[in-house]
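User:
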Amino acid sequence: MTTLQEIERLLPALTRAEKARLLQHVVQDLGDAFPGIESTPGVCGGQPCIVRTRLPVWVLEQARRLGTSERPLPPPGHRAPDPRQRGGLADGPLLRQ
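Assistant: Predicted structure:
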């Protein structure tokens, strides 16, 4: 049985006051977390990213500072097209080898 399954099994036996104390502990433990932002070792060098993307938070902040409009983010799992497949920068002199 996992720890989470054990907690789920014990939760109904707690009083409302005990559940409130437990919730306070959980919130305090997550106090430094920001919803929608996660850091994963091996993804973008461990930099904080938008959840389920490889979009570092610093990129959004820099874009905001430069005056970029706030468009909706692409849906999770969205991948930018490969420029080599659409004749983009890969055809330019800087990327030729």
